[in-house]
Design goal:
The structure holds 2 protein chains of 2 kinds. Chain A is mainly alpha-helical. Helices cover about 60% and strands about 5% of the residues of chain A. Helix content of chain B is about 75%, strand content about 0%. Classes of the chains: A mainly alpha, B mainly alpha.
């Protein structure tokens, strides 16, 4: 660039015509450069706008598809209990054994009869297992129903639910239109989705079992990864001598933080299941595997937090006679804790959304009862989403999206908590 | 079950030791004979640590040994001798017997397991009672010796701090142990795999069809384990398509955020990018399979590609690229921020526009950091599992047509290990060989990236 060249005089003869600022071509060039500047800036805005638009689109798609999973279609049906096939002693419906009594009674057959009686022979399959469960609940709530004819709102089977919300088979559509014309159809909140577990019929599924499995797994992960991660961070930052061993530890922690999660799954399969024979599909194996995966993340966040505590704090404590260990545990760690916790929560959120390593260690089985402890076969919410997404039945589409909404809500809560902690407690020195 | 009671007993002993030492030191202090060297609480902690840690360590090391010993005892028992030699069947019988012995199930699928269960229970009881007793004795002995040292001049705090130091060191060694565990377990299974399939076929073969037949005379009974198509698919999706999306978008996002965006807008945009990074991969996978893939297929058909698949490489790669954007953006953000302010000021002072400063000064200076970030992003993309499992196909094609279906290493690992598992079969072991290859590739990428980033950072500080 000739303009940048230092030239002693400002005589027009030494500077070329193009570099003179009064020249017309200079104006044009400047305009071009400013246009390039604006284009570059717009490109940046476009790039980040695209990411934001994608996120909005993703969330909107999931919300739009999934919101139906939280509602269900109910039909009004009149059941004449004394004349139906239901034989239950009303006295047995009081007390803890009531669930068993209802489960062993043949409510399905009674429902088929009631549906046919109300809506004609084509309505044979109007009610599924979900309706039987709702009917059982209603009976436990009010045993006096058994002695009279009653009108109840019961959830319809999945095929008719789809026909009502979207488009289903022609028969289902016709049936739904006929019932709707009589005013006997309504939409209600599907409370079962948060309280039931996995099932084969999309009308009866819920996320409670998977959610409980996720909680148990995360608790195991947290209990192992947090103390180990914090202690390792303190050692590396405050005590470790500079030598080859420390370098090796640092390299392996940094590398572990970037190892694909599926490799941890293979490790879990080979070590925890095939070598140590821990219970397959148990939350304990999932928690151990995820703890190994999360620990490096906590170490790295913990080191940054410890590093940001100013040396004057340590010097002051040492100056009044504290030992090195007392300095670290009485002063450095409490001051670094908000940063450590933020990193831990972000690591936990990642572990909560992890799927691949858990597939490797067998947490993908069909689990219809929520796990009672960390050794029971369990599944977690992301794996449940994966399993439902594989189902052929169309009713599972909205259930999958609804489960995704539940998962995203938990992720947002955890990330929000991390951001709150960071803003509320983190000190700038 | 007593092997689970033993730690509880040891902890109880430790608690008792703590209380005795604490009260004893308290009495000495109240006695007025002089000034205690350490606070009573340190004396207590000293006794408790000595009682608990050696015994717990012993139990932790004993647990896997016991599993092996129990198995050997059961195998040597009269019932165990009759078991078939065939590994897979024997393992499943043993697993069932173990579950029955622990009261997890009533009867086994194999009749032999019911007979084996009492043997299991016997052996487990014998070994765990012995180990538990030894552990409790050690806890009592060590706790007693530590308790006796309580006194005026004893430096209990130093002792406690030495234990804590050991604990800290042990915690940081877990990282090395994990790495070692990964390498050893993968290597061990891979070597077994290479006994069945030659390494040359695995590394250079171009056909992948891992189905091994049940009967020898079945068609295609051999199974082919050439991994070239898998690695091509992985690179095609993760390192080419995804990076074409992620690098420009991530880099431009970082430039906009650090150089142009007003502070209030940045305060909104950064958390949004963090949310994008925090969305679980299974959600991306579902989105790719259900929303993006059909659009891509229709697009491919519309522009006349008849082989357009609904499990196209493009759909998986695009969504993966979007997932990586926040990652690339934050790495680029860091390295641009690390360029000294003087360089930017110098360029602006010479009359360069902001865009010219960024393109000609900041980016060249930040390039090593950006390259390191991109390498880390590639390593993440090729190890990503759920998006490709849900949106990419299973057909091992060697193709450069992005509308066709390709398969990846991670997809095949999941596929091989989640179907009906046969232990000892080449199919199951192949998953570990693929895992080892994936680990080595990502390790190399990570090490290069980390050293590039570190060297570059040293240059400016």
């Amino acid at each position: 660039m000739s303009g940048a060249r230092p030239n002693g005089g400002d005589t027009p003869s030494t500077a070329s015509a193009a570099s003179r600022w009064t020249d017309g071509s200079m104006d044009a060039r400047l305009r071009r450069r400013y246009a390039a500047e604006r284009r570059f800036r717009l490109m940046g805005l476009f790039a980040i706008g695209l990411s934001v638009a994608f996120l909005v689109f993703l969330l909107a798609t999931m919300a739009w598809r999934g919101i139906g999973g939280f509602s269900q279609t109910e039909a009004r049906v009149a059941i004449d209990f004394p004349r139906s096939d239901i034989i239950i002693d009303p006295a047995s419906l009081v007390g803890p054994g009531a669930d068993q009594v209802v489960a062993s009674a043949d409510l399905e057959t009674a429902l088929v009869q009631a549906a046919v009686a109300n809506y004609g022979p084509e309505a044979e399959e109007l009610f599924g297992g979900g309706a039987a469960r709702a009917l059982g609940k209603a009976l436990i709530e009010d045993p006096s129903l058994l002695s009279r004819r009653a009108e109840l709102w019961l959830p319809v089977a999945s095929a008719y639910d789809i026909a009502r919300k979207d488009t289903g088979t022609p028969e289902a559509e016709r049936m739904v239109a006929a019932i709707d014309a009589r005013g006997d159809l309504k939409r209600s909140l599907n409370t079962g989705f948060l309280t039931y577990s996995d099932a084969t019929d999309p009308g009866e599924v819920g996320v409670w079992g998977a959610l409980k499995g996720s909680f148990l797994t995360i608790i195991v992960t947290m209990a192992l990864a947090f103390p180990v991660g914090v202690l390792a961070a303190l050692y590396l930052e405050e005590f470790a001598p500079r030598n080859r061993w420390t370098d090796l530890i640092e390299v392996s922690i940094n590398n572990l933080a970037a190892v694909p999660s599926i490799i941890f799954g293979l490790l879990g399969l080979a070590v925890f299941l095939n070598f140590m024979h821990l219970p397959r599909s148990g939350a304990i194996v999932g928690g151990l595997t995820l703890a190994l995966m999360t620990m490096p993340v906590i170490v790295i966040a913990g080191r940054n937090a410890v590093k940001s505590v100013p040396p004057s704090i340590r010097d002051a404590a040492l100056g009044v006679g504290a030992s090195k260990m007392q300095v670290v545990f009485h002063h450095v760690l409490p001051l670094a804790l908000p940063g450590v916790l933020t990193g831990t929560i972000i690591g936990m959120a990642r572990a909560l959304g992890e799927t691949a390593p858990l597939l490797m260690i067998g947490m993908r089985a069909f689990i219809a009862t929520p796990p009672q402890g960390i050794a029971d076969p369990a599944t977690v919410l992301p794996v449940q989403i994966f399993l439902w997404s594989d189902e052929v039945n169309r009713g599972f589409v909205e259930k999958t999206s609804a489960a995704i909404i539940v998962l995203l809500v938990f992720m947002l809560l955890m990330n929000g908590l991390a951001i709150y902690l960071r803003n509320r407690f983190e000190q700038r020195w | 079950m007593s092997l689970f009671l033993a730690p509880v007993a040891v902890l109880a002993v430790a608690l008792g030791g703590f209380w005795l030492a604490f009260t004893r030191a308290g009495r000495i202090r109240a006695g007025g004979a002089g000034r205690l060297n350490s606070l009573p609480i340190y004396h207590g902690a000293y006794a408790a640590l000595w009682a608990a840690i050696p015994a717990l360590l012993l139990l932790a090391m004993w647990a896997p040994v016991q599993t092996a010993l129990v198995e050997r005892t059961v195998m040597n028992s009269p019932e165990g001798q009759t078991l078939p030699d065939f590994d897979m069947q024997r393992d499943s019988i043993l697993a069932e017997a173990r579950e029955i012995a622990r009261g997890k199930r009533e009867v086994g699928f194999n009749t032999e397991s019911t007979a084996l269960a009492p043997r299991f229970r016997e052996a487990e009881n014998r070994y765990s009672t012995a180990a538990g007793a030894v552990a409790i004795l050690i806890a009592l002995g060590a706790g007693f010796l530590a308790l006796r040292r309580t006194g005026l001049t004893f430096r209990a705090r130093t002792g406690v701090e030495r234990w804590l130091m050991g604990l800290l060191l042990a915690a940081s060694l877990i990282a090395i142990l994990t790495t070692l565990g990964i390498v050893l377990s993968l290597l061990f299974e891979t070597l077994r795999f290479f006994k069945l399939v030659s390494p040359t076929e695995f590394l250079f073969g171009t056909t992948w069809s891992p189905q091994t037949a049940i009967r020898a005379d079945q068609v295609g009974s051999s199974g082919a384990f050439g991994s070239i198509p898998l690695f091509w698919g992985t690179i095609f999706i993760g390192a080419i398509i995804a990076m074409v999306v992620a690098i420009p978008l991530g880099l431009m996002s970082a430039i906009f955020l650090t150089q142009y965006s007003p502070a209030r807008l940045r305060a909104w945009l950064k958390p949004i990018l963090e949310i994008l990074a925090g969305v679980p991969t299974v959600v991306y996978g579902y989105f790719a399979a259900l929303t993006v893939a059909p659009v891509i297929r229709d697009l491919g058909l519309a522009i006349g590609i008849s082989s357009a698949s609904s499990e196209s490489a493009l759909a998986a790669g695009l969504v993966m690229g979007i997932m990586i954007i926040p990652f690339v953006s934050s790495m680029a953000d860091d390295s641009i921020a690390a360029v000294p302010q003087a360089m930017r000021d110098g360029s602006l002072a010479l009359g360069a526009t902001k865009a010219e400063t960024i393109k000609k000064v900041l980016l060249p200076a930040a390039l090593p950091g950006v390259v390191g970030g991109v390498l880390l992003a590639v390593s993440r993309a090729i190890g990503e599992t759920m998006i490709v499992v849900m949106a990419a196909g299973l057909a091992a094609n060697l193709t450069i047509n992005p509308f066709e279906s390709v398969t990846t290493v991670t997809t095949q690992i999941v596929q091989l290990l989640t179907g009906d598992q046969e232990f000892e079969s080449a199919k199951t072991l192949a998953a570990f060989a693929l895992g080892l290859a994936l680990f080595v590739i990502t390790l190399i990428l990570n090490l290069i990236a980390l050293s590039v980033v570190r060297r570059y950072r040293e240059a400016y500080e």
